[in-house]
Specification:
The structure holds 2 protein chains of 2 kinds.
Chain A (H helix, E strand, L loop, with lengths): L20 H31 L11 H4 L2 H26 L3 H32 L7 H30 L7 H34 L1
Chain B lengths: L10 H40 L7 H23 L8 H23 L4
Classes of the chains: A mainly alpha, B mainly alpha.
Organism (chain A): Sporosarcina ureae
Membrane topology (chain A): Multi-pass membrane protein
Keywords (chain A): Cell membrane, Membrane, Transmembrane, Transmembrane helix
């Protein structure tokens, strides 16, 4: 069977993301990547937790006075909602509704973009206050952890934009179903990391 | 590609699979509501602590925040990322290895490493 074989809702496999050997390999390979990413973020979290509020004497910043919860709350809601919209996209992927899937993925990308804009605003606000990357061990650890997460969001946005436009005329087939599915796994993983960031960095930061 | 067979579902089979998909989507939305709820409670607890509401001490809030975060991550992995479905043994192995190191690394860095 050719990769570009046309399906109908009646012939579309129950698990299109794992229907071919290539797809199965990508599926397992991507989960291995996510396992590795977990460890990458674990090291960054460990560094942040150890270096929190530490730096040269008189560097002048603490988590309690730096972070503002309302902004973090809005960012959390945006990212959490984008996780649900990508679940809707995968629902339409499984029921072979290409247009609706593209629409929900577009909404996911917009929510992700909103999140990223707020993060850029947050970082630029901190820099204006003098909390730059080289200010202290604390600031370096903070920007590396939260910045790596933000970088992952940016990569996800580029990824989904390319997928949406490259496949816009092709429609769904077994070649691109896995690509969409792995993107949604990646996007949920970004949300998993954010859950720990808003808990460990921001909520525990303002408690002190 | 040769292993894929195109099997046409009968109208009855098709409507059954659509109904099942809708049911599973409904449970996904329920899980999402639970995640939003946990997030709201987490933020509210911290807000209560900052405003000196009695009963919201640090020693109560911090473990609860971690518990809620763990539940949320579990819901993401098992429902949104479908780890509760069949054929996810190897992904579970990868993620549990990651989670184990994800617990041990921060623990080591904040306890026995000298800074």
């Amino acid at each position: 069977m050719d990769l570009n074989t046309k399906f109908t809702p009646e012939t579309w496999p129950a698990h299109p993301e794992r229907a071919t050997l290539e797809a199965k390999n990508k599926f397992v390979g991507f989960w291995l990547f996510l396992g590795g990413e977990t460890i990458l973020f674990a090291t960054l979290f460990a560094t942040y937790m150890a270096l929190k509020n530490k730096g040269p004497s008189g560097f002048g910043f603490t988590t309690q006075e730096l972070y503002t919860l309302p902004l973090v709350f809005v960012m959390t809601m945006l990212l959490l909602t984008s996780s649900l919209t990508s679940v809707y996209a995968m629902y339409h992927l499984k029921s072979f509704n290409f247009k609706k899937m593209q629409l929900w993925l577009g909404i996911t990308a917009l929510l992700g973009l909103g999140f990223l804009m707020l993060e850029v605003y947050e970082f630029s606000h901190y820099v204006q206050l003098g909390f730059t990357f080289s200010n202290s061990a604390f600031s370096s650890a903070f920007y590396t952890l939260v910045g790596t997460h933000g970088f992952h969001v940016a990569v996800g946005l580029v990824w989904i934009t390319l997928l949406i436009f490259r496949n816009s005329k092709r429609g769904l087939n077994l070649y691109n179903a896995t690509k969409y599915y792995t993107f949604s796994l990646y996007w949920h993983f970004i949300d998993v990391v954010w859950v720990f960031i808003f808990t460990v960095v921001y909520l525990m930061g303002v408690i002190g | 590609m040769s292993e894929v067979q195109m099997i046409k579902r009968s109208p009855a089979e098709q409507s059954l699979s659509q109904r099942r998909a809708k049911e599973s989507m409904r449970s996904q939305v329920a899980m999402f509501s639970l995640m939003i709820f946990l997030t709201l409670v987490s933020f509210s607890m911290v807000f209560a602590h900052l405003n000196d509401v009695p009963g919201f001490s640090k020693f109560f809030i911090i473990p609860t925040l971690f518990l809620f975060a763990a539940v949320q991550v579990g819901l993401q992995l098992y429902y949104f990322m479908h780890m509760n479905e069949k054929g996810h043994g190897i992904p579970q192995m990868f993620m549990f290895t990651g989670a184990m190191l994800g617990f041990l690394l921060p623990l080591t860095f904040v306890t026995i490493v000298w800074w």
